[in-house]
Amino acid sequence: MDRIKLITLVVFLYGLIASTLIVNAEDPYLFYEWNVSYGTLSPLGVPQQVILINGEFPGPRINGTSNNNVVVNVFNNLDEPLLFTWNGIQQRKNSWQEGLLGTNCPIAPGTNYTYHFQVKDQIGSYYYYPSTALHRAAGGYGPLTVVSRDLIPVPFDAPEADYSILAGDWYSKGHVALKKQLDSGSGLGRPNGVLINGKQGKTDGSDEPMFTMIPGKTYRYRVCNVGMKNSLNFRFQGHTMKLVEIEGSHTVQNVYDSLDVHLGQCMSVLVTADKEPKDYYFVVSTRFTKEVLTTTATIGYTTGKGPASPELPPAPVGWAWSLNQFRSFRWNLTASAARPNPQGSYHYGQINITRTIKIVNSAGEADGKLRYAVNGASHVDPETPLKLAEYFGAADKVFKYNIIQDEPDAAVTEKNHPITLAPNVVNATFRNFVEIIFENHEKSVQSWHLAGYSFFAVAIEPGRWTPEKRKNYNLLDAISRSTIQVYPKSWAAIMLTLDNAGMWNLRSVLLERQYLGQQLYFSVLSPNFSLRDEYNIPDTDILCGIVKDMPLPKPYTI
């Protein structure tokens, strides 16, 4: 064998071995075991039933790295069925792990179920929460963070510490009483307070520091609004903050005195301990409410002496300020996210739109009870999860596709128009590039979350949307995210590629509205029924409803 042939053979064998190692090498695993139970706590000073995970409220932090496999074994010690959803985790090819009543059968009391998902090509700040009944009103939520792999550059220096803040409004009534209210046809009314990591601050100097900072060091705070009804504003007493990330996207690093975070949204800021060493307050207050609810958490300098000043920094007023702040958020085009290529290498503004869907929220009644609707239809979860019915070929026995129109009739979207009660499933074409318009004709701020994807939030404006409004879109550096707010009498536009096969929920993050029907599902099916596009149903998946005793369909193959 001559030398050239030998070298060629060695190179071939080396490549074969290397490719085999890559194929067989799995990304690292993170294992968690959760015992979910009730406990009695007094977050607002009144004893009430709260959902604990391993005895904790909020629950434990899931802290992973891009592409990690996350395995969570959930033991349901409640007296009701239970599911958890992972707000912002895209579950690529894997809506089996989404943890909603449209995708999964719930975990029965006294049993367990193991979630297994990969945080594929994601970084950022997220959270999880129980999606069944009104369990979110009892807690059960916790932080979920995903950091970049070591080889991927991050556009800021490593902070001294990385803190999670879950802030949200809270009711002093228990979740059972609140659910009865909604089931009887009434609304939830105004929340009674605001919590920061499950606690309400006293603002009298008696609270122990929730966070500590070493003078001269910089800290990352990941702030999520896990509440039920209200947008929030947060600020650090005496300190500015640098915005660096929103829901998995690195941002242009602008400096702010305060930031609005709407329901379901998460963002990261950097704060430097460069002031007089003493205690300071982290302040959170409700936005766009007649009565402003405020709470605090104490931040202590490690060498500090002296309490925080009782004079709290004021919150902004009105939603015009909030809209202008939204417009200041920009995608960092040169920074890498989960992959080494820069975020700006994806030119979403140059892709042709193949479908426009207008989503209009409305309030009304059905059977004499309060309901909320999308384009005139109020979603109802059937006994058989939508995803299972579709996978087993039994969709026609459970729901009808496309009961709403892409362009709803004006009358259907007005207040008190008759509302249709039914599972709301929109048939969508795999890999289409779509534009979704959220039109809010009501007087309250809306917040929408889309599971399975991130989208480009290209515009928010007052009034009604028309095609001419596209000239105002940000087609260069809009933030890629999964949650978007819509101000009163306003609209918002998002753009995305439907490249993740599965059954994906689009929902109001306002708990009352979501529970009473302001949500729908996108059915995104791959025409190839291939493992390249979607995973098979897990062997351990819980079956219920009409598919419980049906034979499994033929599995997908490559």
Topology:
Blueprint: H1 3-24, E1 29-41, E2 48-53, E3 62-65, E4 69-76, E5 84-87, E6 112-118, E7 124-130, E8 142-147, E9 162-170, H2 175-183, E10 193-196, E11 211-213, E12 218-225, E13 232-236, E14 241-246, E15 249-250, E16 255-256, E17 259-261, E18 266-272, E19 279-286, E20 294-301, H3 319-328, E21 355-366, E22 369-374, E23 377-378, H4 386-391, E24 420-421, E25 425-429, E26 433-440, E27 446-450, E28 455-462, E29 480-481, E30 483-486, E31 490-497, E32 502-508, H5 511-515, E33 519-525
Parallel strand pairs: 1-4, 3-8, 9-12, 11-20, 21-26, 23-24, 25-33
Antiparallel strand pairs: 1-2, 4-6, 5-7, 7-8, 9-10, 12-18, 13-17, 13-19, 14-15, 14-16, 14-18, 19-20, 21-22, 26-31, 27-30, 27-32, 28-29, 28-31, 32-33
Spell out the key features of this protein.
Cu-oxidase_C, L-ascorbate oxidase homolog, 5 helices, Cupredoxin, 6-stranded mixed beta sheet, globular, disordered N terminus, Cu-oxidase_fam, 558 residues, mainly beta, glycoprotein, 33 strands
Q: Your description of this structure?
A:
- The chain has 558 residues and is mainly beta.
- 9% of the residues lie in helices and 35% in strands.
- The strands form 7 sheets. Strands 9, 10, 12, 14, 15, 16 and 18 form a 7-stranded mixed beta sheet that branches.
- β21 and β22 form a beta hairpin.
- The longest helix is centred in the N-terminal third of the chain and has 22 residues, at 3-24.
- The model is unreliable at 1-24 (pLDDT under 50).
- Keywords: Glycoprotein.
- This is L-ascorbate oxidase homolog.
- Residues 36-149, 162-301, 386-527 form the Plastocyanin-like domain.
